[in-house]
Specification:
mainly alpha; about 65% helix; about 140 residues; transmembrane; elongated; TatA/B/E; 4 helices
């Protein structure tokens, strides 16, 4: 990148030892290492941002191509029958076409407060079965 050779690196080390001194050299190297680390973080962050922008541009291009191909296919293929129900299909069946199953005859129940609640529940269940057109439950 900077194309620094071994002889140039040796010259920098010698000048650094003479100027800074051997006593303060470890602290200077630590400081230089921190700065280099910060520079790497910034460059990696910048590179990641550029990569994300490139990926977004590629994705938009692929989506555009997909839309164009989809439109070409839709124009080239014949229309298939619609899966949506028509108004005729949505009309409610008439009362004469509906059959309500009749429950089997059962013996008359005696009316007590305990059985009235059960009888009301049975009547609701029978009404629900009639609404759903379900056959009566087995005995």
């Amino acid at each position: 990148m900077f194309d620094i050779g071994a002889s140039e690196l040796l010259m920098i080390v010698v000048v650094a030892v003479v100027v800074i001194g051997p006593k303060d050299m470890p602290m200077a190297l630590r400081t230089a290492g921190r700065w280099i680390g910060k520079m790497r973080k910034v460059s990696n962050h910048f590179r990641a941002g550029l990569d994300a922008m490139v990926r977004e541009a590629e994705l938009e291009e692929m989506e555009r191509k997909w839309r164009e191909q989809n439109e070409a296919i839709m124009k080239a293929s014949p229309q298939l029958p619609s899966m949506n129900p028509t108004a005729e299909d949505m009309q409610a069946p008439t009362a004469s076409s509906q059959t309500v199953p009749t429950p089997a005859s059962s013996p008359p129940a005696t009316s007590t407060p305990e059985t009235e609640g059960a009888a009301a529940g049975d009547a609701r269940a029978e009404n629900r079965q009639a609404e759903l057109q379900l056959p009566p439950p087995p005995p």
